[in-house]
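note to self: dont lose this again. the chain is below, predicted strucutre after it. 148 aa total, dont forget to put it in the shared folder this time
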Amino acid sequence: MKVILQQDVKGQGKRGQMVEVSDGYARNFLLPRKLAVEATADHVNTMKMNDKANAERIAREKAQAEATAEQLKDLKIIINAKGGGNGRLFGAVTSDEISKALMQQHKISIDKRKIVQDDPIKNVGTYTLKAKLGYEITGILNLEVREA
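---
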């Protein structure tokens, strides 16, 4: 019997896939637990429409991530942090501060968890950071830290 999986089923497949299973397995396990629906013409069409909508959503998000990466390349973020002289800062510049500064200065929203810092920023200077924008697209952030 062909069924369309509604959830991931170990050993059978992922959500949204159409798989061939034995009649008893489908009737006694998958269908009563709402893990799958029978592959009727209506359900197959619905599955295809969902796949198409999902592909369009992914393409739209990928294009948006590429556009954001292109914008970030030319921008410079300036952060004023408290310092103790000699170019050292009190504490470190966090990803949250960088994200907020990017929103305030350039109106671009990037989640703080997507900003990658190899080492903590504890000194005044210019830094180049990466931002993971999704779909294996990374943007480059140019950051200048000044002592306040």
